[in-house]
Amino acid sequence: MADIREVKHLPAKYYKDILSTVAKERKPSPIRSFLPLEKTPGVISLLFGKPNASTFPFTSLSFSARSPADPTHESTLTIDGAELEAGLQYGDTAGFKPLLDWIFGLQEAFHGRRRGEGWRISMGSGSQDLIYKAVNAMVNPGDSVLIESPVYAGVIPMFHALHCNQIGIFPTIFLPPCFLNLLSTLFLLNRGGNGCARHSLLLFALHPRTVAYGQAETKSSVHRSLWDFIILEDDPYFYLYYGKEPRYPSYFTLELEEPEVGRVLRFDSLSKILSAGIRIGFASGPEALLNAIDQHTATSNLQTSSLTQAIAYKLLDSWGYEGFKTHTERVSEFYRQKRDVFENAMKKHLTGLAEWSSPEAGMFFWLKLLLSDNQGEGEGDSEIAIKTKAFEKGVLALPGTHFLPNGRATPYVRASFSTTGEEDVDRAVRRLREAILEARAEGAILEH
Ligand SMILES: Cc1ncc(COP(=O)(O)O)c(C=O)c1O
């Protein structure tokens, strides 16, 4: 027997104060808002400036793909007929229906969220597109936002452009409940002090485990105060998890433990598991927020490419959820091996010159450079050692300052182990060693 559960969700009026002024003032696109009516049976549509597909030169599209179960085996998939026509034509703003349906099933399988329980999905041209539109839909100039740090550097310019008060914090799962409580109270007081009715307390969250935060213990549930916030959960590395323990549940899953859902807007991406160039990401969350995102899409790029969505769907549908799981497990294992190669090179060349913890997901190491023997907690700046010295020696990495909301000095550096071959890893880490040694020597001279 199917298990029966009742999931309550926040009412539409809850989001009235959460939407930004821009989102509230954006009028629906006159043409796009009529588009769903075309599907009414028996209706003849004279509505849309759709080009006549019979004039398009494409007659079929075939591609070959590796089998998830046996990557040495390839099969060819063909998109033609009505499928091709849909892929070549304008489509719904929220996304290509067959792909949306498939993703609903995926979110149920991996996050326990069922269709019809107060949430939906919109597709975007990568998750970046959706994150940008979500920030635009919820943040007014000057608003305060909590940001789990280090954060994805690609979002900081969005908050900067809106002159936000960006408050960098440790991921909430590592924070003591009293700290979260205090933050939430401060936010609420600040709001009251401004005489401002909006209560969009935004928390921009990165999935834990992509950054290894030392030996901190993760908790299996989160503190009540977290749900004072609307959580933007940016999680493109969810399927690149290779830790030994079961994966930590997403905020999207955790909110099911609350009396009502509707505070999490989750961003997933196909970039790291199928192709980054295919430009497909998806947002899952409350209808009111996705409506605002869709209205932005309807007035900016109209929709995500129908063709790449049709290609992604053809592939995913041929795999099924089991095939998808097999594929992503293989991809994760690939990155785990890459991590180990990189870590071995660091143990060989950087012991005593840098500290790190092993990530359990994703493709990055976060190294803390030991730029001086007397370096205290939080001291030092990797910017010159990395941007200038390391580059001169022939290696590129990103100084940690670019991942901090306030851009302060930090001894951390982000190094990607995704694409570099074993020999180049060794060479790169040796060059990092030389750069750190040079920075330490110069620091020592200055100290005297
Ligand atoms: C943490 C994070 N979020 C979002 C993105 C954007 O990815 P995409 O737009 O390709 O889905 C990236 C890309 O590297 C990322 O690292």
UniProtKB/TrEMBL annotation:
Question: What are the required cofactors?
Answer: pyridoxal 5'-phosphate
Tell me where the signal peptide lies: none
> Looking at the record's lineage, which domain of life comes first?
Eukaryota
The UniProt transmembrane annotation reads none
Boundaries of each Aminotransferase class I/classII large domain copy?
Answer: 230-432
Q: Which CDD domains match?
A: AAT_like
- Which Gene Ontology terms describe the biological processes this protein takes part in? alpha-amino acid metabolic process
Question: Does Cell division appear among the keywords?
Answer: no
Q: Which UniProt keywords apply?
A: Aminotransferase, Pyridoxal phosphate, Transferase
Task: Report whether Transferase shows up as a keyword of the record.
Answer: yes
Q: What SUPFAM superfamilies does the record tag this protein with?
A: PLP-dependent transferases (SSF53383)
What would be an example GO MF term here?
Answer: pyridoxal phosphate binding
UniProt record similarity statement: Belongs to the class-I pyridoxal-phosphate-dependent aminotransferase family.
Looking up PANTHER family in the UniProt record yields: AMINOTRANSFERASE (PTHR42790), KYNURENINE_ALPHA-AMINOADIPATE AMINOTRANSFERASE, MITOCHONDRIAL (PTHR42790:SF19)
In Swiss-Prot or TrEMBL terms, this protein is called Aminotransferase class I/classII large domain-containing protein
What is the species of this protein? Agrocybe pediades
